[in-house]
Amino acid sequence: MKESQPSAILLKDYKVPPFLIDKTELTFDLDETNTVVTSHLHMRRNPACGKSTQPLVLDGGEDIKLIGVAMDGYTLPSEEYRLVDDKLIITATADEFVLTCETLIDPQNNTRLEGLYRSSSMFCTQCEAEGFRHITYYLDRPDVMSVFTTTIIADETRYPVMLSNGNETERGKTDEGKTFVVWHDPFPKPAYLFALVAGDLAVKNDVFTTQSKRDIKLQIFTERHNIDKVNYAMEALKRSMRWDEETYGREYDLDIFMIVAVDDFNMGAMENKGLNIFNSSCLLASPETTTDDAFLRVESVVAHEYFHNWSGNRVTCRDWFQLSLKEGFTVFRDQSFSSDMHSETVKRVEDVSFLKTAQFAEDAGPMAHPVRPSSYIEISNFYTLTVYEKGAEIVRMIHTLLGEEAFRKGSDLYFERHDGQAVTCDDFVAAMQDASGVDLTLFKRWYSQAGTPVVTVTDEYDEQTKTYRLTVKQHTPATPAQPTKLSLHIPIRVGLISEQGDALTADFHNERSDDFVLHLKDNEQTFEFTSVHSKPIPSLLRSFSAPVKLHYEYTTEQLLLLLSCDSDGFNRWSAAQQLAVNELSQLIQQAENGDAFSIDSNLVAGFKALLEDETLDPAMVALILKLPSQAYLSELAEVIDPQAIKGARHFLKVTIANALAAQFADVYKKHVVMGKYQANAQDIAHRSLKNTALSYWAESADQRAQTAVAEQFKQADNMTDQFAALSIAVKTNHKSAQNMLTAFYEQWKAEPLVVNKWLMLSASQESDDALGAVKALMEHPSFDLKNPNKVRSVLGGFGQNTSGFHHKDGSGYQFLADQIIVLNKRNPQLASRLCTPLTRWKKLKPELSVQMKQQLERILAEDLSKDVYEVVSKSLA
Ligand code: B3K
Ligand code: ZN
Predict the structure, then answer these.
(1) What's the chain's average pLDDT?
(2) Lower Cβ count inside 10 Å, N or C end of the chain?
(3) Which residues of the chain have pLDDT under 50?
């Protein structure tokens, strides 16, 4: 462990920057190991600070070497500046001056993948949140916005493509015969949006004509062998541009929009102004190599990064505590886009299912934090599901409270009022409130309070007076640093249904309807509905109107009725989930007690009706049939017993499979998609149901299913079907599973993104020596510790490997800890993300919990990056 541990940065300590940088002129003389960066920063004291004599303190990194510094052309002797803890400090400055810095950096050996680094044969950058300081000394904070001009110098034979933000304004030869290219971005921006790319890249060109009839040049760059896989992304980009004009009135501003795909990238993609950089896994797509899910992900990430041009770039964050200002809002925008492009209900179910599994777990664990955190040690650790997904739910609730029209007025006011500024979540809410007249004062607590509220509903019906009352209570459990909680403003959408399954109308607040939004503001409130002609079944929290855990004692009959009759598609899915959770809870209990498994037949009956109803949307049927995941059941459990959960799920799946084998076989055959592969909603829906049916059928005793799996694997003309068959073979221990895995690798070894899927599936394969198998994968020629996608595939797959990861001797946890310790030095951001499974140690059953804790303690004893230190120390606190 280090002598002194890193300290926390606090929101309450925010101060405006003492200096501003009006113009930033950068020159990069590119070289693999010795890149020279020269900056001319046109600076002045910030008038908002009044008359001040504060020294100039610029952010830097331990990996950059300062060659020289000059002020207004005067080279500073070493006694006129200091380098302290990666900061460059200059005490005496004029009120206005040009600061010149020359730094030396080593992109080739930059394994952190932030700042300027190499990926394959190219140079690329990642500057959010604090990567720019690894390039040169700067005021690396989002409220310092500057106009950037960037000159790139390189050997044109190796780096014919040289890109940065904005428009190319000049190109020529240097005296040494190298090529230089100048880029100018007229929009002031924080350094985190800076980008540079250089390489021997292929390009796909297109044009988008905006609503005001400006032609925007669109370019997607990839390594040469991948350029045939960008058509889908290009079309998705054009759909996003049109949608943002139509839905938010937002038009693109520069004359050119570029996207570059790189293989080595810490996350999905980055919204650099005019030059988005993408993890190739979120950009490249072809039917043969890409599954339906991955196609949809490409579309949503392309949209997300594009939408940031307004929600993030034109209006940016004042400080990193406000991260959800851009991320929550932009996730909400990309979710709405995908919903408009495909099916609203399917999209909502997928998003909510993810939120309830992963974000709820985060919000109940040691890293729980508000959507607007009030403290952090390393900001990279706060690109979380809470900031992104719960942040999006907050924006969605504002949308529910205001309604479509007023919400649009609010977003228009927000963009107009704050264009070119760095602002706060409060500013966002203020614009929404000012434009709509809706009081959001109480609602704002959602931003500052961590934890998932638990909402408990009871009801009573008075036959005499035809009155129906819903009593709703809220309670938010304590989270680290927030022992007591306040009540929140929770919008609860409710529908009323008769015992026959029809919509039931009622009077509520001068409105007669069968669907209402209740405003829960106190710890307990009773809502009274009148003129209700029969006893209702409440359909609660329709379309998941708030990110809460809902409790209401539904009977099995009521859940079955909601499953078949609710007009809210989301709640039909929700009812099925609840039925399955009820069954599984009993089974888990039986497993833990060592009792024989037994289930009642209701769920099977419900599924049977679903499989036989040909009028339903196949995508919804597939979603309803998917059993609650291991991860979701772990989130729900008080104490997690991974083996018991796995056993219960397996038993339930096999039982349903055997009871309905004929129906699954039938549905499997009926939903085969004929004709050329297309990633459209309809075909995706059929493939999804077909493969879900196959996953059940293959668990049944019907041997024909085994043949169907093998046939589909061999004959599939698209990755969705081929990989579905392979996964089913692996999960059901198909007799040819091993051969299929080998054949799959041989077929696709030249396609890294497909190999990643193979690595993940192989690492998740349960066996007596799962750990040995995973160790072998890390020695496999296709594995590369430098590539985050590969690391995540193997370690992510292993995390799902119950017998391997949760081995009772603790060897699985030890192995993960070993990898974290190695990566802590090479790539702290990646290492920190890999800690997530270990942060759940307190909830595991005691014999596993103690082993996991030991590994966290072992990690904490190392010399740690801020990233890993923060997660591990908070987990042990
Ligand atoms: N804004 C980036 C995330 C940057 C993460 C830095 N550790 C991608 C996105 O959310 O669009
Ligand atoms: Zn984003």
Answers:
(1) 98
(2) C
(3) none
